Amino acid sequence: MSDRIDPTAMYAMHDALRRELAHLDRVSTRGDSDARHVLATAAGWQLFKKALRAHHAAEDEALLPALRRSLAGNPEVLALLEVMEAEHAALDTVIDAIDAALADPQVDPLRLGDLTDALTTGLAGHLRHEEETVLPLLQGALTAEQWDHFGQVHAQRLGPDGAVLLPWLLDGADEPTVEKLLAPLPAPTRAACTDQWVPTYTALNRWAPGTAF
């Protein structure tokens, strides 16, 4: 197995998701009906969902199967990977329930608050669980080719919205992390990101109502 696996991008995604959970928590704990309007019309909720679903879909498609093949002789790890997939599915269910509540103009604000709290608690727990149990397995279980394949699938999943999701991912990251994430990109893409995408994203007040696109 290679020792070249660098989980920087994985941790950057987790950090970005935690950042957005903090925004979600602030919006949903206001305790009034405006929280429904904000979530229903804010770009922040859309971007959060797109990024989370792309991330988990890439893990389900490319990362967890590779770990399952490599660690097929370890039943405890195989059970752990099944738990990861189940946690992904459970989070999708909560997101769907939130969207259904947002589509209902008569939704009880307490119901919406309970759902967003379940998402915040569930995702925070999942990220912590993955970091403590799955990410330590990567270095010894995956080849560089398998890790690169996961990165390619992840990029493809984000691809259609890359012009906004890449700046979203970089938001708040330190300089070494930004450099590592941008380094593999073709020069024209890096230039577009720094010269066009990041300024456009920075100007977007993504958790303000009426910013959805």
Keywords:
213 residues
Describe this structure in words.
This protein has helices at residues 8-28, 34-41, 43-70, 75-102, 109-133, 135-141, 144-158, 162-170, 175-182, 187-202. It is mainly α. The radius of gyration is 18 Å and the shape is globular. The protein contains ten helices and no strands. The model has no long low-confidence stretch (mean pLDDT 94). Helix content is 77%, strand content 0%. It has one domain: nmb1532 protein domain like (Four Helix Bundle (Hemerythrin (Met), subunit A), Up-down Bundle), CATH 1.20.120.520. Helix 1 runs antiparallel to helix 3, helix 3 (43-70) packs antiparallel against helix 4 and helix 8 (162-170) crosses helix 10 (187-202).
The radius of gyration computed from the alpha-carbon positions, rounded to a whole number of angstroms, is: 18 Å
Structural class from helices and strands?
A: mainly alpha
Q: Specify the number of helices.
A: 10
Helical proportion, percent range: over 70%
CATH architecture: Up-down Bundle
Biggest beta sheet summary: none
Question: How much strand?
Answer: under 5%
> Which regions contain 5 or more consecutive residues with pLDDT less than 50?
none
Average pLDDT level = 94
Count up the domains.
Answer: 1
Précis, in short:
This protein has helices spanning 8-28, 34-41, 43-70, 75-102, 109-133, 135-141, 144-158, 162-170, 175-182, 187-202. With 213 residues, it is mainly alpha-helical. Helix 3 (43-70) packs antiparallel against helix 4 and helix 8 (162-170) crosses helix 10 (187-202).
